[in-house]
Design a protein that fits this description.
Radius of gyration: 23 Å
Distance between the termini: 64 Å
Shape: elongated
Number of domains: 1
Number of helices: 10
Largest sheet: 2 strands, antiparallel
Helix content: 55-70%
CATH class: Mainly Alpha
Order of helices and strands: HEHHHHHHHHEH
CATH architecture: Up-down Bundle
CATH superfamily: Transmembrane di-heme cytochromes, Chain C
Strand order of the largest sheet: 1-2
């Protein structure tokens, strides 16, 4: 006679919780932009570090085995223009996307969002045991993402300023030579280079926060950037984000 295997504590915990519905939080364009930006930053960081500190030198003509610097610059420029396109598209999508990816869902523009911002800060300060229940980004994360994209725009402007300085021909000089009058070219390079390390630091914290909230909320935070779907944390409650959308 077959015996029944006792349930593990994980299985008992899962069985005790009712199944939750899912919400489509992150649309396909947002997920595509996210991973495009990730790949671009990796490529730009590797090639950018090499351009700042070349560790291999050789011939100065294409086709020469030592023409590493030229190849690195070409890869850097191609990745840069892909990056620019992705950033501009995400800014556009902040005005046409759903309530989870819209700019109103990122910035604390309502009383409820400002309250959630305060409670999220308390959670990070270990003054609150559980995070705020939200299906989209919490307000603190939203502010961080908006700040990140402001820094992206600074990176783009400094990069295009350096590109115009290198080419010395229109339309690049016409559009971006003004950056040389704001700061010197060496300062442009320094700002452009230092921002790379800020993005690396942000990436470390971003992954840590995503894993933390995934473990705390059990809402599919990590898988949502691949599938777009998250567990509905507000099931059975009046969703504050939907109420905010109705008030617009």
């Amino acid at each position: 006679m077959a015996t029944t295997r006792p349930l593990t504590w994980r299985e008992r915990r899962a069985a005790a919780k009712p199944a939750r519905r899912s919400v489509y939080a992150f649309e396909a364009p947002v997920r595509i932009v996210h991973w495009t930006v990730v790949v671009c930053i990796i490529v730009l960081s590797i090639t950018g570090f090499y351009l700042e500190h070349p560790f291999q030198t050789g011939g100065s003509t294409p086709g020469h085995p030592g023409f590493t610097l030229g190849y690195m610059r070409f890869i850097h420029e191609v990745a840069a223009f892909v990056f620019i396109g992705a950033v501009l598209f995400r800014i556009y999508w902040a005005f046409v996307g759903n309530r989870y990816t819209h700019w109103r869902g990122l910035l604390p523009v309502t009383k409820e969002q400002r309250r959630d911002l305060s409670e999220t800060c308390r959670f990070y300060a270990f003054m609150r045991p559980r995070p705020v229940k939200l299906n989209g980004h919490n307000p603190l994360a939203g502010i961080a993402y908006v700040t990140l994209y402001v820094l992206f725009l600074i990176t783009i402007l400094t990069g295009l300023g350096l590109y115009a300085w290198l080419l010395r021909r229109p339309p690049w000089t016409t559009l971006f030579s003004w950056t040389w009058s704001v700061v010197s070219v060496p300062e442009l390079r320094l700002i452009h280079f230092v921002l790379m390390f800020l993005y690396i630091a942000f990436a470390v914290h971003h992954v840590y926060s995503a894993v933390l909230f995934d473990l705390e909320e059990h809402n599919g935070e990590m898988s949502s950037i691949f599938s777009g779907w998250k567990a509905n944390l507000l099931e059975g409650e009046p969703p504050r984000d939907e109420v905010n959308e109705a008030r617009r």
